[in-house]
Design a protein that fits this description.
There is one protein chain. With 149 residues, this protein is mainly β. Helix content is 0%, strand content 70%. It has no helices and ten strands. Strands 6-5-4-3-2-1-10-9-8-7 form a ten-stranded antiparallel sheet, with no helix packed on it. The chain is globular, with a radius of gyration of 16 Å. The chain starts with a strand and ends in a 10-residue tail after the last strand.
Length: 149
């Protein structure tokens, strides 16, 4: 798969202290396959709370994913099915180390244009939140209109 520009919808859900919050972002992204990994990159907006950053999601079939954010916020979350990883998480307000335990990765980007990830975050082994990311490719290729005369 070559590098394509696509339109994605990204729903991020978070449960914390019995409260659920949800953000949805519809944006253009670049999508490519490299060394067996699907790689999607998009610019964050005010809706995600990380305006001025670029997020890249790199995922293999259904076992590993890496969510990298760079710019105004810098972080790298490593997700591996059934395992906990300690990751550096940067926000505009400062950086800290968090634990990430992955419950589910369902990568159907190649067949259905969908990616689902569910994980739990903790700080110093104290529960922080349960999180879901649902990413769907809305259009396989977004083309700029061009007159070919």
């Amino acid at each position: 798969m070559n590098k394509n520009e696509v339109l994605i919808s990204l729903v991020s859900r978070q449960w914390q202290d019995n409260e659920k919050s949800e953000t949805e972002l519809v944006t253009r992204a670049s999508c490519r396959t490299e060394n067996g990994f699907n790689i999607i990159s998009y610019e964050d907006t005010e809706a995600t709370g990380f305006e001025g950053s670029v997020t890249t999601i790199k995922v293999d079939k259904n076992k590993n994913a890496l969510i990298i954010r760079s710019g105004t916020a810098n972080s790298a979350l490593s997700l591996e099915m059934g395992k906990k990883h300690f990751c550096q998480y940067g926000t505009p307000y400062g950086s800290f180390q968090i634990g990430v335990f992955t419950h589910s990765i369902k990568n159907r980007l190649s067949t259905h244009g969908e990616l689902y990830m569910k994980y739990t975050l903790d700080i110093n082994s104290a529960y922080l939140s349960d999180n879901e990311i649902i990413l769907k490719i809305q259009e396989q290729a977004v083309h700029e209109s061009a007159d070919e005369s």
